[in-house]
Design brief:
The protein is an all-alpha fold. The chain has 10 helices and no strands. Helix 5 packs across helix 10. It is globular and about 65 Å long. The two termini are about 15 Å apart. The relative contact order is 0.12.
């Protein structure tokens, strides 16, 4: 793990404001890239529903969900505006289920790519920062890409939780028999299952039982391991 963004000395109000702006930028980029990837892959597979709504963009305004943003500010857990797509228009491959799964996995794949690139950048910049006796510009670069990587990994792990309406659940849903998906019992399950997320948020925010944090941390483990291994390989070229 890396601790480059941490400093021991007291920060000035300007540094604190800069830190808040950097974290806000990193959060917006992580959310925007996640939704952009959903829209881009759906369009690539033949469905222009999201493209026609202006969702194939990194502009965070196009992806902000008011409820998700409010949840993020109040409880630290939020989401972007879901990207619409019509599976009937997906035409690049013959297997509809495969294409739907690709669309659902596009967001977390984008977050992994963003986390990996950001981790490589801040690792290299961090080594240069430590060797350069604390260059301020390098420290800012480390700070920016550190939080982009962390927020992207967190968003990736959160969306892989197999509870509706998250991407991880939709991937599993595509593997279910059609008979099950259109049954009355399954419809009832879909109506009540999202409350699981609400319960997890309440446990963490009001009862100080961070079950959701533990789940996210466990899901992150294999992705962090892959990123760290690639990091070490690339850093060995610079050391």
């Amino acid at each position: 793990s890396h601790n480059y963004p941490q400093r021991n000395q007291a920060q000035t109000p300007q540094q604190i404001l800069l830190g808040v702006l950097i974290m806000f930028f990193a959060l917006c980029l992580s959310f925007s890239f996640h939704e952009f990837m959903h829209a881009f892959v759906a369009s690539w597979l033949g469905d222009d529903t999201a493209k026609n709504q202006g969702r194939v963009t990194l502009n965070p305004i196009s992806h902000v969900d008011p409820v998700g943003a409010a949840m993020l500010l109040l409880f630290g857990i939020g989401w972007g505006k879901p990207v619409p797509f019509n599976s009937n228009y997906l035409s690049r491959f013959k297997n509809k289920r495969l294409m739907c799964i690709l669309v659902y996995l596009a967001g977390v794949t984008g977050n992994f790519i963003l986390a990996l690139i950001s981790s490589i950048v801040y690792s290299i910049a961090g080594v240069m920062f430590l060797k350069g006796n604390g260059n301020e510009a390098l420290f800012s670069l480390v700070y920016i890409f550190y939080y982009i990587s962390e927020f992207s990994l967190g968003l990736l792990a959160f969306n892989l939780i197999p509870v509706p309406p998250l991407d991880g659940f939709h991937v599993l849903e595509e593997l279910l028999p059609y008979r099950t998906r259109y049954s009355d019992g399954y419809r009832s399950f879909l109506a009540y299952a999202p409350r699981v997320l609400l319960i997890l948020v309440v446990l963490g925010s009001f009862l100080n039982i961070p079950v959701l944090d533990y789940i996210i941390t466990v899901i992150e483990i294999p992705f962090r391991l892959i990123i760290n291994l690639i990091d070490m390989g690339i850093l060995s070229l610079f050391l």
